[in-house]
Amino acid sequence: MSYLLDTNIISNIVKKNEIVKAKFWELKFREEKFFISVISYYEVKRGLLYASATRQISNFNGFCQEVTVLFYCFTCCYYCAGGINCSAQPRLRSIRPCL
């Protein structure tokens, strides 16, 4: 089976919620496939950068090595993620794309 993880699940894993983390690793051990959307990727990344949460950024980067990030076309990713984050919190500047 495959799973598309939402932002709240990703956040709980990055924050080391033991229940969510244990379930993730249980399923990972069974060789289940995990995906996150580019929108969730940028939502989490923007929140962590805004909070200057360096430990959690490191956790998130490690987590992204365990899942497949579903990037669409580069232009769509960049403008969509930038628009979501900048419109939600106007004082933020856009982040550089990871591609």
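Above is the first protein from milestone M3; the second protein from the same milestone is given next.
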Amino acid sequence: PSDDGQPEGAHSAAVPATADASLPQGDRLDDVAKAHVLDVLKKFNGNKAQAARHLGIHRRKLYRLLERFEVPKVSPAPAADAAEISEHLSN
């Protein structure tokens, strides 16, 4: 044990009992996760199968995340429309 009585390597970070509603928008886990998912989708030009593979999650999980994050559904489009998809994902 360490000097504070905790096992070696244990951390004693304070964790609030409830979520802190005073956190600025963008600092919440869902905000960070949404931004990351949208960045990955943009990287793969809206291809959800490739994005899910890159994220290490099943495609169904990606669809559920997009629904939870209230991301509008975008119809698959030919490669010529990739710029339009990319623009939509960046908004």
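Note on the second protein: The radius of gyration is 19 Å.
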